[in-house]
């Protein structure tokens, strides 16, 4: 259930949609009198009115996409898909790029609100810094649907559409931890490439991989494996390394690659200075891992180190997985086309009055999937932007 303030916002949204259809945006006396007594009833009343007065065919809405950056193929493909989905409905589309600058992101959100857009789709730079701006947009009656990056619960957007980060990581970890890759008596000596500090998405991904490896190598239940992985995560935060003795699994270092191949490469080079005996590199996305692979190859470790990404399912990563003899094991599918399409579908449903903001959970996930040698050819699209 959404908070009461969000439920009340649904009424405002429904009324604004009704007014946009040429109707008179005047709430009933009963609805006007409700000041906290039965907010859910108000939402239902507003939703019902909106459904009776859905926008006429061809109605043009304005949708702004406030994105964190376009420095990564995933973000380019995500923006392209959102744009396509918006424009094919005949709506107006605006893209505002923060270029990973928090102040610019705030300015972009303020711009979208001042332009009186009907809805905002957002991929946040920072999960905390965006809270006031998202709340301001929602308070103005503009629904905000986040994509790819989960923001602080205080922001309370309509929902966040994203891959199932933990489950993707868990499935990848199970594959990596299988005896076909690491025999039961072999120690897994790994290092970890992470995106940015404090990023909840990255934390979910790496914790999922840890839990999957632990479950595969110990036979632990999913819940017990998750608890053990969370303990490793805390050790990693406190000490820069972590170990699970039962699974014969250790992470000997963590590097920060800012989600890109260009920064993943030097981060991997730094990790290799003190970790030449590793047999596994775990990355929170493919792009960093592709950069890390170059560092691994340059160090002459190509045939000694396995590679696994918790996400994204990048085309170049799939091509690596398909190669004969490749040690690129798996990637969790984080499909920008599915994420972008779902986000616009939610906006469409809200603006047409078919649903209200109380209809959605905090997260709207896409289906979890580990892409491996066994299924990569079914998933791979050579024409994909990503």
Written account of the structure:
There is one protein chain. The chain has helices at residues 4-20, 29-33, 39-52, 73-87, 102-114, 131-139, 165-176, 200-218, 222-239, 261-274, 286-298, 315-322, 336-351, 376-379; strands at residues 62-67, 92-97, 119-122, 144-147, 159-163, 188-194, 242-244, 249-256, 280-283, 306-312, 328-333, 363-366, 370-371. The chain contains 14 helices and 13 strands. With 386 residues, the protein is an alpha/beta fold. Helix 11 links the parallel strand 9 and strand 10 (306-312).
Approximately how much helix is present in the residues?
40-55%
Strand sequence of the main sheet, in spatial order? 7-8-6-9-10-11-13
Rg on CA atoms, Å: 23 Å
Number of DSSP strands?
13
Determine the strand fraction and express it as a percent band: 15-25%
Low-confidence stretches: 1-56
Q: What structural category characterises the helix and strand content?
A: alpha/beta
Secondary-structure map with pairings?
Blueprint: H1 4-20, H2 29-33, H3 39-52, E1 62-67, H4 73-87, E2 92-97, H5 102-114, E3 119-122, H6 131-139, E4 144-147, E5 159-163, H7 165-176, E6 188-194, H8 200-218, H9 222-239, E7 242-244, E8 249-256, H10 261-274, E9 280-283, H11 286-298, E10 306-312, H12 315-322, E11 328-333, H13 336-351, E12 363-366, E13 370-371, H14 376-379
Parallel strand pairs: 1-2, 1-3, 3-4, 4-5, 5-12, 6-8, 6-9, 9-10, 10-11
Antiparallel strand pairs: 7-8, 11-13
Helix pairs in contact: 1-3, 4-13, 5-6, 7-8, 8-9, 10-11
Brief rundown of the structure:
With 386 residues, the protein is of the alpha/beta class. It is built from 14 helices and 13 strands. The strands form 2 sheets. The protein has a 7-stranded mixed beta sheet, sandwiched between helices. Strands 2-1-3-4-5-12 form a 6-stranded parallel beta sheet, sandwiched between helices.
